[in-house]
Amino acid sequence: MKQSIGAKPLSFPTPAWVVGTYDMNGKPNAMTVAWGGICCSNPPCISVSLRKATYSYAGIMENKAFTVNIPSEAYVKETDYFGIASGKEEDKFEATCLTPVRSELVPAPYVAEFPVVLECKLLHSLEIGLHTLFVGEIMDIKAEEAVLDEKGNPDIEKVRPVVYGTGNRSYYGIGCNLGKAFSIGKKP
């Protein structure tokens, strides 16, 4: 028998994505998001939800673009750090020793070391409450050759993406716990 646990922001699986933006001065910034998913197949679109208080929110509004970077398990600490630190106060790329790359298609950076990146043009923004839902049209997906299958698509077992467990606030890989969220990334 099921037990009611109340209305909560909980779903499985929940991604651990890193959204790339430029700030108002053109400085690359990135933040970890868990509220997101594919929202349309034609045109191909993805959605992410950010709080207005985040530094990345202003970057998306200013540039009308963002990237969605899919980290592999090897970058779980950096992924957590991107969600703990504020780009307003520090350079997250410098702190993590990761490389920002300027997209050729949209005014937003992506993380060179992450195996898959989606370059998105902002189509819609919708204030829902505490979060604003951003819908981005996927202009291109870039993937490392090493993670592609025989048909040229990213293979989840090769990408080894990070997912977020909302109930226990931990990160997981494909079948294993990678560490405690908001803890493992305190030191990049």
Automatic annotation (TrEMBL):
One of its GO terms (molecular function) is FMN binding. Its cofactor is FMN. Residues 10-164 form the Flavin reductase like domain. The keyword Chaperone does not apply. Pfam families: Flavin_Reduct. Gene3D superfamilies: Electron Transport, Fmn-binding Protein, Chain A. Keywords: Flavoprotein. PANTHER family: FLAVOREDOXIN, FLAVOREDOXIN-RELATED-RELATED. Belongs to the flavoredoxin family. This is Flavin reductase family protein. It comes from Methanosarcina acetivorans. The lineage of its organism: Archaea, Methanobacteriati, Methanobacteriota, Stenosarchaea group, Methanomicrobia.
